């Protein structure tokens, strides 16, 4: 028999990586990661009023919705198999003040939305944030006094707000304001109020990023912000600091960890998953979403392909799930797969 060994076989030691890539069936057989509808959390924006579906210019395909319309959207999400939604309010300007006191109102917009969703769609998870930025007149996530975000008073307030949100039916509290000690304070407050089964998804590593712009338009805080958030968000240059921050949240009782933004910080996702072993999530934030939509609208990229590829990258990096505005679009695609 003629020896058909090729020079490439000698170079590679008879190992050829392309053998497992040669056909669709082999590629599917050896695929290491997969994106499913179970990986999706849908962030949504709620506004006062009724029968409102208000498109957000900076986020094509994303709307602000009144509670009644949000309930309809939650029903559709549940029907698509999306496990959970994360709600963010855009409240009236005259209700915003320097301390964000509206967050403590039991009948505020976010709590009304939670109660309505859980009544109409009890099978879908509701995740709520206790950061103050949607409620403050200055756009910061905490109480601002003499130009400084005061840590301890903010922690006391958000812990109280967490209990009220749990009372309204929130399944998971996701504190994003990045104050020191907030996870432990919230856990103690929830347990003292009998909410032992309410989880905490910590925004463990929330970076001071330029990717948040469209979100701030969505909740009408962009024009309010005085200064920046560098004194409490993490410097994008600091990976070790981010892991230290997450470690404190783990010690204080976080059930899940989140990295925000998502794609620029996949190294942090990987490190957190390896370090702690807790469920890890990433938030594909508004700027990430809008960049894909804008490039696709201009014909520069295949928007659907890039969307699916980016979400798969989160899974490869170690994410157990992704908060993404693409969730309904992706769920519909996956349902046809």
TrEMBL record:
It is an enzyme of class 4 (lyase). It catalyses: 2 5-aminolevulinate = porphobilinogen + 2 H2O + H(+). Pathway: Porphyrin-containing compound metabolism; protoporphyrin-IX biosynthesis; coproporphyrinogen-III from 5-aminolevulinate: step 1/4. It comes from the Bacteria. Keywords: Heme biosynthesis, Lyase, Porphyrin biosynthesis. One of its GO terms (molecular function) is porphobilinogen synthase activity. Its EC number is 4.2.1.24. InterPro entries: ALAD (IPR001731), ALAD_AS (IPR030656), Aldolase_TIM (IPR013785). It holds the Pfam family ALAD. Belongs to the ALAD family. Homooctamer. This is Delta-aminolevulinic acid dehydratase. It comes from Rhizobium aquaticum.
